[in-house]
UniProtKB/TrEMBL annotation:
SUPFAM superfamilies: Restriction endonuclease-like (SSF52980). Transmembrane segments: none annotated. The keyword Hydrolase applies. This is Restriction endonuclease. The keyword Cytoplasm does not apply. Pfam families: Mrr_cat. Keywords: Endonuclease, Hydrolase, Nuclease. GO terms for molecular function: endonuclease activity. It comes from Sphaerochaeta associata. Residues 9-118 form the Restriction endonuclease type IV Mrr domain.
Length: 238
């Protein structure tokens, strides 16, 4: 899923929800104060889909309660949605909802979910959005891994074994391409193991990638090191 652990408190639940929408390409603000018909109201997570033509607004209420949500929360939140004119509302519960909530939310624009529910709903969009975001880091690497299209700086021969090693070490970055956000799903065969290499291009360990969060974190944290090691390989940098 999108997160590798559960939130530890209500603040982190709000943070996770805001982060989820933000990483999907929405504009998301946590604890945003908005103007309603009857005054101001703080919204746990305020979301707008700026990539859509009509820029719909989504309001999210987060409840880190150790008991199921009661229907009074639904009635109150429905008033907030109507007063603001939001297109959609989510109530995110830690443990679920009383039966009365399901009846109260029926035929409204409110969706009753857990964090896992909302992760499932936006999982494919999240993967493709981050693949598109990080794709720019693959572009500078392309001339290097598109062997033998690039010449070594001193005109000598490339060490083919080290070329394979560097490509294996940074394969998640090299494999990002312009088609990743066009296909129906961005899919990798997880888990997989990557070699960890030093500046001498020698293996010093290994890293197992088990989740998409770990995969995207790896890309973000190693984008500069990948380019550095390719430059060392092609003797453009000592």
């Amino acid at each position: 899923m999108i997160f590798d652990r559960e939130p530890k408190d209500w603040k982190e639940l709000q943070k996770f929800v805001g982060q989820l929408f933000s990483e999907c390409g929405f504009n998301a603000e946590v604890s945003k104060v908005v103007e309603l018909v009857r005054g101001k109201k703080e919204i746990d997570v305020f979301v707008q889909d700026v990539e859509s033509e009509y820029k719909p607004v989504i309001l999210v209420e987060c409840k880190f309660w150790n008991r199921p949500i009661d229907q009074e929360v639904i009635h109150s939140f429905r008033t907030v949605l109507n007063d603001y004119g939001a297109n959609l509302g989510y109530i995110v519960s830690k443990v679920g909802f009383q039966q009365g909530c399901i009846d109260a939310a029926m035929k409204t624009n409110i969706k009753l979910v857990t964090l896992k529910d909302i992760e499932n709903q936006y999982f494919e969009r999240w993967k493709k959005a981050l693949a598109r975001k990080y794709r720019k880091y693959a572009d500078p690497l392309f001339p290097y891994w598109d062997y033998p299209g690039k010449r070594v700086a001193d005109g000598g021969a490339i060490d083919s074994k080290k070329w394979i090693l560097v490509h294996q070490a940074y394969r998640p970055i090299c494999e990002l391409g312009p088609g990743d956000d066009l296909v129906s799903t961005y899919t990798k065969n997880l888990p997989f193991v990557l070699p960890i290499i030093n500046d001498s291009l020698e293996v010093i360990g290994s890293l197992t990638i088990t989740t998409y969060r770990e995969l995207f974190n790896f890309i973000n944290e190693n984008k500069e090191k990948a380019l550095k090691h390719y430059k060392i390989l092609y003797r453009e940098e000592v």
